[in-house]
Amino acid sequence: MLFKVKLTGFSHFPTQPHIIAPNHRFILDAPLLIGFLPMDFSAMGKASLARSKVFGPIFRHFQAIPVERDGQDIGAIRQAITTLQRVPLIIFPEGTTTNDGGRLPAKPGLGLIAKQAAVPIVPLTIKTDYRLFGTIELIAHEPVRVTDFGFRR
């Protein structure tokens, strides 16, 4: 095995549909989740991946929702809300990986989708640098609901 994988807090995943919101530092994050999440799920991802010869078939297999990132993709948001009636949905809150391994601000779509679909969000921490024979830790945190946070327009 190339990595040791440690799973923590996976009992926090609700049985009903929910959003899984992992951090996204490396391009390998998505394939890692495919291998270790203990449920059927869908995901949102950049539309160019869905059109790719390499990643397109994987995208279609998971019925992933392509997102045009150059604006507000209302169709993808609607599709996400519909998908959440059936299965959990992975949404990377930052919308992309970072060049320096740091964090980026979350995009507003995650909160909008969670509120409209009335589902909890399970924050998921991916701790790794993907060094060969290193440790990858997936930490599922307690679910939160958008309504748990008081905010005004």
Question: What labels describe this entry?
Answer:
alpha/beta; 7-stranded mixed sheet; 5 helices; 25% helix; globular
Write the layout of secondary structure elements.
Layout: E1 4-8, E2 19-22, H1 29-36, E3 42-46, H2 47-51, H3 56-61, E4 65-67, H4 74-83, E5 89-90, H5 109-117, E6 121-127, E7 135-140
Parallel strand pairs: 1-7, 2-5, 2-6, 3-4, 3-5
Antiparallel strand pairs: 6-7
Radius of gyration: 15 Å
Uncertain segments of ≥5 residues (pLDDT<50)? none
Number of helices: 5
Mean pLDDT: 85
Which shape, going by the Cα principal axes?
Answer: globular
Number of strands: 7
Overview of the molecule:
The chain is α/β, with parallel strands linked by helices and 153 residues long. The chain has helices at 29-36, 47-51, 56-61, 74-83, 109-117, and strands at residues 4-8, 19-22, 42-46, 65-67, 89-90, 121-127, 135-140. Helix 4 packs across helix 5 (109-117). The termini are far apart. It has a seven-stranded mixed sheet. The longest helix is centred in the middle third of the chain and has 10 residues, at 74-83. The protein is built from five helices and seven strands; from the N terminus they run ββαβααβαβαββ.
